[in-house]
Amino acid sequence: MSREFTPETERQRLQLLGFLKPELLGSEFTHLEFSRRVLPKELGQRMLYRDQNMTGWAYKKIELEDLRFPLVCGEGKKARVMATIGVTRGLGDHNLKVCSSTLPIKPFLSCFPEVRVYDLTQYEHCPDDVLVLGTDGLWDVTTDYEVAATVDRVLSAYEPNDHSRYTALAQALVLGARGTPRDRGWRLPNNKLGSGDDISVFVIPLGGPGSYS
């Protein structure tokens, strides 16, 4: 029902804004993305890059302006806008600026959410059909497949008419994302760090109790 909005997934939108309004980048950033950090000694050499119009990569001769820090940097959960923030949509933060700079970050953040409509009347639903609504604390450390497996495991342990099954599922998802305390902090079963972010989960049943067809 949704997709992530990250500096990576919205790279082209961010780069287009930086291209159209270079004053937002000052003399510190470039809207171009390179395959790796450009070094001063590489001036005049060729390196893979991409701009706001490209999904693939091409070669470019490195110029002085290319030594600036990229508008979008990092990969996955470590991707950042202007080396500062890891989200691209949100409310507030009007005074947020790049560290040790006067450049504002707000112009690159969109307040428009993605809206999708799911018509419940078009499908038949049973008590095991649920919508899981969670914060980054859940999704940063848990995949869709892992959430689905937890849904199957927890709901199958309860009777379809037992409303507490949905509360138990939400609790299981929160506890699973938090991990368990070990010598080196809270850890997941794969030994990776548990979520250090807020973990809020809502489980919304799409079918009424006992509504198996």
Explained architecture:
The protein is of the alpha+beta class. The protein folds into two domains: 1-116, no CATH class; 130-205, no CATH class. The protein has four helices and eleven strands, in the order αββββββββαααβββ. The strands form five sheets. The chain has a three-stranded antiparallel sheet with strand order 2-3-4, with no helix packed on it. The chain has a two-stranded parallel sheet with strand order 1-5. Strands 6-7 form a two-stranded antiparallel sheet. Helix 3 (144-155) crosses helix 4 (164-178). It comes from Macaca fascicularis.
Task: Summarize, please.
The chain is of the alpha+beta class and about 210 residues long.
Key phrases:
single chain, 213 residues, alpha+beta, two-stranded parallel sheet, elongated
What is the secondary structure topology, with strand pairs?
Layout: H1 11-20, E1 29-30, E2 33-34, E3 46-50, E4 58-61, E5 69-70, E6 72-73, E7 80-81, E8 130-134, H2 136-139, H3 144-155, H4 164-178, E9 180-182, E10 185-187, E11 201-205
Parallel strand pairs: 1-5
Antiparallel strand pairs: 2-3, 3-4, 6-7, 8-11, 9-10
